[in-house]
C-alpha cells in the first residue's frame, strides 16, 4: 500500500518554525531579518497562534500593506486575530512609530471566492465572527473613485511626523449582544490612537444592534469609506442614522455610498416619526454616488416619489420588493430621470396585475434602452397580463435575464413568451414559473403538488424550440416550488 508523505518544508518555512520555537526572542531577531522572511514567518505564526510573534511582526512589518484575508480563511483563530490587534498599540500619534515599520494598510477583508471554497470546518469557524463579510463593492469600483475625498476642514501646514495606518474591515453587526473582545479591542485601539489609526469599512450590515454598541462603532468608523450599507429589520438601527440630533453619524456623511439596502423600514412613513423621516430624505440628497437602491418589506403605498426625488444622480439598480406599490409609484418611476440609466429593475412581491398594460408597460418602454435584468417574481401576473406586456418587453433589446417566478401563467403562454423573445439576442437566462396547469396556485403562489409529467413535457418542448431557433446558449429554468412563499403571504 502506498503511503502519502507530507511535502517537505522549504528552507524559509524551516527557518520560520525554528525562530518561533523561541517566541520570546522574536522581537530582537526581527531587527536582523531580511524582508523576504517576514511573510513566511507571519504565515507560520498565524497558523499556530503565536501571539507574541504576531504582535512583534505587526509592529515591525517592513511592507506598506498587510493583507490577512487568506490567512483568516485558512486559520480563523481568535487568538491570532487578537494578537494582530495587540500589535496596533504601538501606532499612535503620541508615540514614535515602531522601528523599521512601513505598515500603512492592514486589511482584514475576505475574498468571496476564498470563503466559498474554504470548506465546512472553516465556514463554521468564520460564522463565529459576526463582522466578516466578503466585499463585492471593492472589485466593482474603479480605483480612482474607491478612495474617499479628503475632509474639507483639513488644515494645511507642516507634514505630520507620522502617517496614519488604515485598517480595512467589512462589518456584519447583528443581534443584541456585547461586542466580542476582538472588535471591542480594535475599536479601543482606534479610539486611543489619536488619529494614527483609521477604521475603514466598505461594507456595513446592521441588524438588531444594541444602540450603544452601534453608536460606538459608527463614531469610530471613517464614514466616508462606506460604499455599501445594509440596514435590516429593526427600525431603531436606521433611526440612529436618520436622527438629526446625532450629527456625528449623519447618513449624509456617508457620501461615497454606492449601494443602500433597507429592509423592514415601515417607520419611514408612519405619523409618529414624521420628523425623522423628513430628515432622512434630506440626507439622501447628499448621496451623490449612490447607484444601487434596494427597498424590501416596507410600506410605500404611493410614497416612492419621496425617496426617488431626493436622488439627483440616476440609479443603475432599483429593487423594490414587497412594498405595496401603487400605480402612482410606477407612473412616477417611469417619468423620473432614473429610467435613463437603469440596468436592473426588481419589482417582486408587488401586485402589478392592475397596472397592465398602463403604468408597467410605460415603465418598461422607458427603461428599454438600458435594462439588462428584470425581476417580476410573484406579481400576480396571469396570461392576459403577460400577453399585454409582451410588446413593451420585446423592446428591451439589452435584456439578459428575466425572472417570472410564482406567477399563475399557463404553459401555452410561456411558449408564446419564448417565441416572442427570440429577437432579444442578449437574453440568456429566463426563470419561469411552474405553469398553472402543472400545479395548484394559492394567493398567487405555487403550492404544489406539481404534475411532474406535464412539467417535463413543457421543459422538453422549450428545449426543442431553443434548438430549432439555434439558441442553445439560452437557459430557461423552472422556479422552485415555495421559493418565495414566505415573503408573499
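-> sequence recovered:
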Amino acid at each position: 500500500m502506498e503511503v502519502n508523505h507530507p511535502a517537505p518544508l522549504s528552507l524559509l518555512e524551516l527557518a520560520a518554525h525554528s525562530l518561533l520555537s523561541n517566541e520570546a526572542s522574536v522581537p530582537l531577531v526581527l531587527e536582523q531579518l531580511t524582508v523576504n522572511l517576514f511573510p513566511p514567518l507571519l504565515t507560520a505564526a498565524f497558523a499556530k497562534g503565536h501571539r507574541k510573534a504576531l504582535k512583534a511582526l505587526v509592529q515591525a512589518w517592513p511592507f506598506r500593506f498587510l493583507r490577512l484575508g487568506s490567512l483568516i480563511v485558512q486559520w480563523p483563530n481568535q487568538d491570532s486575530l487578537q494578537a494582530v490587534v495587540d500589535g496596533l498599540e504601538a501606532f499612535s500619534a503620541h508615540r514614535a512609530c515602531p522601528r523599521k515599520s512601513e505598515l500603512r494598510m492592514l486589511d482584514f477583508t475576505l475574498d468571496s471566492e476564498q470563503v466559498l471554497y474554504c470548506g465546512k470546518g472553516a465556514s463554521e469557524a468564520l460564522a463565529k465572527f459576526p463582522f466578516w463579510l466578503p466585499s463585492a463593492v471593492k472589485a466593482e469600483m474603479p480605483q480612482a473613485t474607491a478612495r474617499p475625498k479628503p475632509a474639507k476642514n483639513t488644515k494645511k501646514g507642516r507634514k505630520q511626523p507620522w502617517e496614519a495606518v488604515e485598517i480595512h474591515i467589512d462589518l456584519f453587526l447583528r443581534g443584541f449582544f456585547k461586542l466580542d473582545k476582538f472588535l471591542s479591542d480594535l475599536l479601543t485601539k482606534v479610539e486611543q490612537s489619536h488619529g494614527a489609526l483609521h477604521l475603514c469599512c466598505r461594507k456595513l450590515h446592521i441588524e438588531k444592534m444594541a444602540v450603544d454598541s452601534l453608536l460606538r462603532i459608527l463614531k469610530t468608523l471613517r464614514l466616508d469609506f462606506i460604499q455599501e450599507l445594509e440596514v435590516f429589520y429593526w427600525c431603531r438601527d436606521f433611526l440612529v442614522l436618520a436622527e438629526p440630533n446625532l450629527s456625528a453619524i449623519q447618513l449624509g456623511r456617508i457620501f461615497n455610498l454606492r449601494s443602500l439596502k433597507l429592509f423592514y423600514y415601515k417607520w419611514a412613513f408612519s405619523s409618529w416619526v414624521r420628523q425623522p423621516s423628513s430628515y432622512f430624505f434630506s440626507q439622501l440628497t447628499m448621496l451623490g454616488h449612490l447607484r444601487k437602491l434596494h427597498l424590501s418589506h416596507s410600506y410605500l403605498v404611493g410614497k416612492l416619489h419621496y425617496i426617488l426625488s431626493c436622488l439627483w444622480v440616476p440609479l443603475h439598480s432599483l429593487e423594490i420588493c414587497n412594498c405595496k406599490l401603487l400605480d402612482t409609484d410606477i407612473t412616477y418611476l417611469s417619468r423620473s430621470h432614473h429610467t435613463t440609466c437603469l440596468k436592473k429593475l426588481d419589482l417582486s412581491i408587488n401586485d402589478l396585475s392592475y397596472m397592465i398594460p398602463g403604468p408597467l408597460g410605460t415603465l418598461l418602454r422607458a427603461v428599454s434602452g438600458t435594462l439588462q435584468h428584470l425581476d417580476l417574481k410573484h406579481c400576480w401576473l396571469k396570461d392576459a397580463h403577460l400577453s399585454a406586456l409582451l410588446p413593451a418587453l420585446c423592446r428591451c433589446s439589452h435584456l439578459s435575464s428575466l425572472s417570472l417566478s410564482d406567477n399563475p401563467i399557463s404553459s401555452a403562454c410561456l411558449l408564446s413568451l419564448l417565441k416572442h423573445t427570440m429577437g432579444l439576442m442578449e437574453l440568456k437566462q429566463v426563470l419561469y414559473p411552474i405553469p398553472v396547469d402543472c400545479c395548484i396556485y394559492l394567493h398567487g403562489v405555487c403550492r404544489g403538488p406539481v404534475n411532474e409529467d406535464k412539467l417535463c413535457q413543457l421543459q422538453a418542448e422549450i428545449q426543442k424550440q431553443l434548438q430549432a431557433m439555434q439558441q442553445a446558449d439560452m437557459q430557461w429554468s423552472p422556479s422552485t416550488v415555495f421559493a418565495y412563499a414566505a415573503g408573499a403571504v
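Confidence is low (pLDDT under 50) at residues 1-8, 135-160, 271-276, 482-489.
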